[in-house]
Structures are given as structure tokens and as C-alpha cells.
Amino acid sequence: MIAEILLLEDDNFTICGEDLVTDLKDMGFGLLRQWTPAFARKLFMCFENALTIRMARIDLLNAPIGMKTAVAIFKLFLKEKLKKRIYIYNEDYEEMFKYIPKSLLPKEYGGTEGTLQDLTDHWKNKVESYRSWYLRENLKD
């Protein structure tokens, strides 16, 4: 939903693409187990073929044990271009800061762009402000 809003409001998002930063710190084995090769293949096919968004980077933070192996397996299903755009960081984000400025990240990740709660509240309000638009779009299906 946020990606749709960014496509509507931000031309820079359309041109430059998305840097997806995901914290996996509290991801348990049960959730990781649900990522079957078939699910991963479908998910990444959507990223590569269905979304009109250019995936510039995928940064995975605080990956649990076994995540590097899982990512290596999932990369088997990806095109070469997307394979090279997936990065894993644990605790030390200095390398990531070379590509994603601290000014774009929340304080919890060494950034200066407010807190996670601030960002959560902002995007919750933004998505809710698009409620009627989403309802209209849903009726078109």
C-alpha cells in the first residue's frame, strides 16, 4: 500500500526505485520455515515482473542464524540483476551507510529520521488518508 502511495506522490520513487530495509531481528524459525522455495519464487517473480517499482536494494538487518543460507537458496530463483542487490547486515551498519544515508533511517538504526514509532505513525496516517482511494480501486477488480 505504501508503494502505491509513493508511486502516486513521488516521481523520484518511480525513477530511482526502492531501497527496502527489513529488520529480521525478531523473526523466529517458525516464520522462516514458511518461506518455501515455491513461496520465495512467487514472491520474487512479483518483485521482478509484476511490480512497476525498480528494486534498487534489499537490505536485511539482524538476520537470524541460517538466513544467509536461505537467501543463497532463494537467489537461485532470481535474475542476476536482483541477486546482486540483496545485502545482509548484522549489528554493524557502517557498510550500509555508504549506500543509504543516515538521514533516511530512524534513530534505532543509527539514523536521524525520527524514531520507528514516528515513521510508523506517519505511514499509518498516510495509508488511512487513502482509504477511499483504496476502496475505489478495489471495486475496479
TrEMBL record:
Pfam families: CRAL_TRIO (PF00650). SUPFAM superfamilies: CRAL/TRIO domain. GO terms for molecular function: phosphatidylinositol bisphosphate binding. It comes from the Eukaryota. Residues 1-117 form the CRAL-TRIO domain. InterPro entries: CRAL-TRIO_dom, CRAL-TRIO_dom_sf. This is CRAL-TRIO domain-containing protein. GO terms for cellular component: membrane.
